[in-house]
Amino acid sequence: FSSRGNTSDLKALFDFVRSCLAPVGAGGSPVLLVDDLSLLLSLGAAPVQTLGLCPLPCPGWVGSQPGAQGCLGLSFQGNIVVLVHSNEDSEDEENKLVVNSLCHHSDLILWAEGLATGFCKDVHGQIKIIKRSSLELTGEQDHVQIYQYKIQEKNVTFFAPGLSAAVL
User: Fold this and answer.
1) Same domain, residue pair 152 and 112
2) What is the domain count for the chain?
3) Can you name a GO cellular component term (predicted)?
4) Which terminus of the chain has a lower count of CB atoms within 10 Å, N or C?
Protein backbone atom coordinates (compact mmCIF):
# COMPACT_ATOMS: atom_id res chain seq x y z
CA PHE A 1 0.00 0.00 0.00
CA SER A 2 1.61 3.18 -1.14
CA SER A 3 -0.37 5.70 0.88
CA ARG A 4 -2.65 5.13 3.83
CA GLY A 5 -5.28 7.59 2.67
CA ASN A 6 -5.55 6.43 -0.94
CA THR A 7 -8.50 4.10 -1.55
CA SER A 8 -7.26 3.23 -5.05
CA ASP A 9 -4.75 0.84 -3.44
CA LEU A 10 -7.61 -1.57 -2.77
CA LYS A 11 -9.63 -0.77 -5.90
CA ALA A 12 -9.01 -4.14 -7.57
CA LEU A 13 -10.10 -5.99 -4.45
CA PHE A 14 -13.21 -3.83 -4.05
CA ASP A 15 -14.08 -4.26 -7.75
CA PHE A 16 -13.76 -8.04 -7.39
CA VAL A 17 -15.99 -8.07 -4.29
CA ARG A 18 -18.54 -5.80 -5.97
CA SER A 19 -18.74 -8.11 -9.01
CA CYS A 20 -19.21 -11.15 -6.76
CA LEU A 21 -22.02 -9.44 -4.85
CA ALA A 22 -24.07 -8.70 -7.95
CA PRO A 23 -27.72 -9.78 -7.60
CA VAL A 24 -28.02 -13.56 -7.97
CA GLY A 25 -31.57 -13.70 -9.27
CA ALA A 26 -34.80 -15.06 -7.86
CA GLY A 27 -34.72 -16.40 -4.34
CA GLY A 28 -31.04 -15.89 -3.60
CA SER A 29 -29.13 -13.43 -1.47
CA PRO A 30 -25.34 -13.25 -1.45
CA VAL A 31 -23.27 -13.81 1.69
CA LEU A 32 -19.94 -12.04 2.03
CA LEU A 33 -17.47 -13.98 4.21
CA VAL A 34 -14.32 -12.12 5.21
CA ASP A 35 -11.87 -14.46 6.94
CA ASP A 36 -9.65 -11.86 8.60
CA LEU A 37 -10.39 -8.19 8.05
CA SER A 38 -7.63 -7.15 10.47
CA LEU A 39 -5.10 -8.54 7.99
CA LEU A 40 -5.68 -5.49 5.77
CA LEU A 41 -4.62 -3.24 8.65
CA SER A 42 -1.41 -5.18 9.14
CA LEU A 43 -0.69 -4.77 5.40
CA GLY A 44 -0.92 -0.99 5.75
CA ALA A 45 -4.51 -0.18 4.82
CA ALA A 46 -6.17 2.62 6.78
CA PRO A 47 -9.24 1.80 8.91
CA VAL A 48 -11.51 3.64 6.45
CA GLN A 49 -10.16 1.50 3.59
CA THR A 50 -10.50 -1.67 5.66
CA LEU A 51 -14.10 -0.89 6.64
CA GLY A 52 -14.81 -0.04 3.01
CA LEU A 53 -14.64 -3.72 2.15
CA CYS A 54 -17.77 -4.34 4.22
CA PRO A 55 -20.88 -2.62 2.87
CA LEU A 56 -21.79 -1.06 6.21
CA PRO A 57 -23.51 2.29 6.47
CA CYS A 58 -20.94 5.01 7.08
CA PRO A 59 -22.92 8.26 7.31
CA GLY A 60 -20.00 10.19 8.78
CA TRP A 61 -17.76 9.35 5.84
CA VAL A 62 -19.94 9.23 2.75
CA GLY A 63 -23.45 10.35 3.68
CA SER A 64 -25.03 7.03 2.77
CA GLN A 65 -28.35 5.86 4.11
CA PRO A 66 -28.21 3.13 6.78
CA GLY A 67 -28.22 -0.29 5.16
CA ALA A 68 -27.89 1.14 1.67
CA GLN A 69 -24.31 1.69 0.62
CA GLY A 70 -20.93 1.18 2.19
CA CYS A 71 -18.02 3.55 2.65
CA LEU A 72 -16.52 2.90 -0.77
CA GLY A 73 -19.65 2.36 -2.81
CA LEU A 74 -20.31 -1.34 -2.17
CA SER A 75 -23.98 -2.14 -1.66
CA PHE A 76 -26.08 -5.28 -1.78
CA GLN A 77 -28.96 -7.09 -0.13
CA GLY A 78 -27.53 -10.00 1.81
CA ASN A 79 -25.48 -10.93 4.84
CA ILE A 80 -21.91 -10.18 5.88
CA VAL A 81 -19.83 -12.43 8.14
CA VAL A 82 -16.53 -10.89 9.25
CA LEU A 83 -13.72 -12.28 11.40
CA VAL A 84 -11.60 -9.67 13.15
CA HIS A 85 -8.87 -10.41 15.67
CA SER A 86 -8.95 -8.19 18.71
CA ASN A 87 -7.30 -7.98 22.09
CA GLU A 88 -8.60 -5.68 24.81
CA ASP A 89 -5.03 -5.18 26.08
CA SER A 90 -3.74 -4.19 22.65
CA GLU A 91 -2.63 -0.63 21.98
CA ASP A 92 -3.51 -0.89 18.27
CA GLU A 93 -5.92 2.05 17.95
CA GLU A 94 -6.67 1.38 14.27
CA ASN A 95 -7.76 -2.20 15.01
CA LYS A 96 -9.90 -0.98 17.92
CA LEU A 97 -11.57 1.52 15.58
CA VAL A 98 -12.40 -1.23 13.06
CA VAL A 99 -13.69 -3.62 15.76
CA ASN A 100 -15.82 -0.92 17.42
CA SER A 101 -17.27 0.19 14.10
CA LEU A 102 -18.16 -3.37 13.09
CA CYS A 103 -19.74 -4.05 16.49
CA HIS A 104 -21.71 -0.81 16.27
CA HIS A 105 -23.18 -1.75 12.87
CA SER A 106 -23.76 -5.47 13.55
CA ASP A 107 -27.00 -7.03 14.66
CA LEU A 108 -25.32 -10.28 15.78
CA ILE A 109 -21.86 -10.53 17.35
CA LEU A 110 -20.04 -13.75 18.23
CA TRP A 111 -17.17 -12.89 20.57
CA ALA A 112 -14.81 -15.81 21.28
CA GLU A 113 -12.26 -15.39 24.05
CA GLY A 114 -10.11 -17.35 26.44
CA LEU A 115 -11.09 -17.92 30.03
CA ALA A 116 -10.49 -15.00 32.40
CA THR A 117 -9.09 -17.50 34.92
CA GLY A 118 -6.48 -18.79 32.48
CA PHE A 119 -5.75 -22.23 31.06
CA CYS A 120 -8.04 -25.15 31.79
CA LYS A 121 -7.68 -28.67 30.41
CA ASP A 122 -11.44 -29.24 30.08
CA VAL A 123 -12.64 -25.77 29.03
CA HIS A 124 -10.80 -23.94 26.26
CA GLY A 125 -12.70 -20.67 26.22
CA GLN A 126 -16.03 -18.95 26.10
CA ILE A 127 -18.18 -17.41 23.42
CA LYS A 128 -20.57 -14.50 23.88
CA ILE A 129 -23.50 -14.32 21.50
CA ILE A 130 -24.75 -10.75 21.45
CA LYS A 131 -28.01 -10.18 19.60
CA ARG A 132 -28.52 -6.48 19.18
CA SER A 133 -32.09 -5.49 19.94
CA SER A 134 -31.81 -2.43 17.73
CA LEU A 135 -29.11 -0.63 15.78
CA GLU A 136 -30.78 2.63 16.80
CA LEU A 137 -30.22 4.30 20.18
CA THR A 138 -33.54 3.19 21.69
CA GLY A 139 -32.31 2.20 25.14
CA GLU A 140 -33.26 -1.45 24.61
CA GLN A 141 -30.89 -3.99 26.13
CA ASP A 142 -28.95 -6.34 23.91
CA HIS A 143 -29.61 -10.06 24.46
CA VAL A 144 -26.36 -11.73 25.59
CA GLN A 145 -25.79 -15.48 25.93
CA ILE A 146 -22.52 -16.94 27.21
CA TYR A 147 -21.34 -20.48 26.54
CA GLN A 148 -18.08 -22.17 27.32
CA TYR A 149 -16.48 -24.56 24.85
CA LYS A 150 -13.99 -27.35 24.50
CA ILE A 151 -12.28 -28.00 21.17
CA GLN A 152 -11.95 -31.68 20.40
CA GLU A 153 -10.31 -33.46 17.50
CA LYS A 154 -13.26 -33.29 15.08
CA ASN A 155 -15.83 -31.11 16.83
CA VAL A 156 -16.47 -28.47 19.46
CA THR A 157 -18.58 -29.03 22.56
CA PHE A 158 -20.54 -26.07 23.98
CA PHE A 159 -22.02 -25.90 27.46
CA ALA A 160 -23.30 -23.38 29.98
CA PRO A 161 -20.63 -21.79 32.20
CA GLY A 162 -19.71 -24.12 35.05
CA LEU A 163 -21.33 -27.20 33.50
CA SER A 164 -18.39 -28.86 31.77
CA ALA A 165 -18.11 -32.64 32.04
CA ALA A 166 -15.08 -32.21 34.33
CA VAL A 167 -17.15 -30.24 36.88
CA LEU A 168 -20.15 -32.57 36.83
Assistant:
1) yes
2) 2
3) elongator holoenzyme complex
4) C
